Structures are given as C-alpha cells and as structure tokens.
Amino acid sequence: MLRKMLIGAAALIVLMAAPAAAQYYVVVTPTDVLAGGVVSVSGKGCGANSKVYVRFQRITPPRQTIYSKVIRADAKGNFTFKITVPKNAKPGTYRLQARCRQSGSEKAGDSNWDAWEKANPKATSRAIAGQVRGEWLYWEAIVTVRAAPAGGPGTGNGTIVRTGSNLNGLGLVGAGLVATGGIILLGARNRRRYSHA
Prior knowledge:
This protein has 197 residues and is α+β, with helices and mostly antiparallel strands.
C-alpha cells in the first residue's frame, strides 16, 4: 500500500511556472510503467488551437521512437493525450517530449524534432521541465518502462480457474446418507414413544 502511495505521489509530478504572458504546466502519470501500460499527459499554456508535437523515445541504447504524433490544444490552450506503451517495448529510460507555440503562426518544418532540437540545444533536460523558448513552450519528462511479467496481469482469458476434483457425486451420496440417518433416528424415536404409551 505504501509503495502504491509513493508511486502515485511520484507519478503526479506537476510543474508550475509563470512566464510574463501565460501560466503553463504539464502532468505526466505514471512515470514508471510496465510495457503494455498507458501514460497519461495533460498540459496547459499552448496558444489557442495550436498544434502540440509529441514524441516518446527510448534514450537508453538502442535509441528508438515508439510514439510520435501531432495533436491540437483546445481553445484555452489545454491538451491531453495518452500513450499506450507497446507490449514489446524494451525496458529502459524513455523521454516524453511535448512542444507547442504560445503565439505566432505555424511554419513548415515545425514537426521536425531533429531540426527543432538543433535550433534549441539547451531546451532538453533529464527531468520534467517546462521552458519557454521564443514562441515555443517545451516540456520533457523521463519515464521508466519495465518489462511486463510473464503470465502477469492482462495475459489471461477472463475465466476463473477451477482447481480440485469434482466432488459433486460424493457430496450427493453424503447428503443422502445424512438424510437416511435422520429418517432412521426419527423412526426409532417414534417407536419408543408408542411402545411406552
């Protein structure tokens, strides 16, 4: 129970900052997940209806991007998305990144992560962070992916396993013997009553 509470507390890492123009934050939960699990992300501070560029990438060798998508913030600049970690994802350290424009118009090449990182070399860090980089808001969180246990949760077919032997026949025989014994006792008792009368 204590472990679940600690994991829950660690998973609810919230970053708040107040730049001059807007307030922004991001929540990533959980930051420690089994392969096949779901990571939920929600944030605030993007421009109204702006594109949010998302990438989930393994940073321990071999480097591998397992999720890359463009979503839209709502009219208030809020966004929410979920990433289902593939069941065959290699265990290791992953970097979850999200970025959006606070203002300004979208430009060709905005979706290119490599070009953006070259233009913003100091933006990345190894802990959850929110930064304003010119027109951009950038968030990053480190997520640990662990191997799902073999035969663990979610691997069954939904049926309850029945163990033991089939004792229904023996149970019926036993119930019949008890009933027969009860009838014999009642009959013997009634004979005594009538014989003394």
